[in-house]
Automatic annotation (TrEMBL):
Organism superkingdom: Bacteria
InterPro entries from the UniProt entry: DUF4351 (IPR025587)
DUF4351 domain ranges (all copies): 130-187
Protein name: DUF4351 domain-containing protein
Length: 187
């Protein structure tokens, strides 16, 4: 089965390649009214009703359905609606599925808005914190390489496994380190 967004009205469903024939079952999202589905989901979420797996998928596919508004506007409405879900696990599922679709169908406006919404979720904060920590670690390794002309690989590996507080401590103490072996006290 191939799912086609509302922009596609007709597609090849049979391909004859000689000894191999392909028959595709096409599902056209243009046949689904995204405005009605969005309204139904808004009511369900407003009333704090439990969302089913089908509801989560429906919300995720809203941007691909037919609508009176643009794909970008539908996407932004889907993001806002997903963000208003109180159950953090369901919210995360919806946002994750929406993100997966953005990679293929999203425009820059939708991606930017998604990033803003996702960054304030728990997993968004965790990813951002992990990224910051990795960045600090990489900068510290570069500084130590410059300070000591070459940082042994074993020290690089040990530094990569240190908690953020130790990385910051080494960065603060970097000018007090006289030789590379002085790093031992941090491991």
């Amino acid at each position: 089965m191939v799912i086609y967004s509302a922009d596609i009205e007709d597609a090849e469903i049979h391909i004859d390649a000689g000894s191999i024939n392909y028959n595709i079952e096409a599902f056209y999202m243009k046949n689904l009214n995204g405005d009605e589905k969005l309204e139904m989901l808004k009511n369900k979420i407003r009333n704090n009703e439990k969302l089913t797996s089908d509801d989560i998928l429906t919300l995720s596919f809203i941007p691909l359905m037919s609508s009176k508004i643009s794909k970008s506007e539908r996407t932004l409405e889907g993001i806002e609606l997903a963000n208003s879900i109180e159950d953090s696990e369901v919210k995360l599922k919806c946002l994750t599925l929406l993100y997966a679709l953005f990679d293929k169908f999203g425009d820059q406006i939708s991606k930017k808005r998604f990033k803003e919404v996702f960054s304030v979720t728990e997993i968004g904060k965790m990813i951002r914190d992990d990224g910051k920590s990795e960045g600090k670690t990489e900068i510290l390794i570069k500084q130590l390489n410059k300070r000591f002309n070459k940082l042994p690989q074993e020290y690089e590996e040990k530094i990569k496994n240190l908690p953020s507080e130790k990385i910051e401590l080494i960065a603060t103490d970097i000018f007090d380190l006289e030789k590379v072996e002085d790093l031992e006290k941090y491991f």
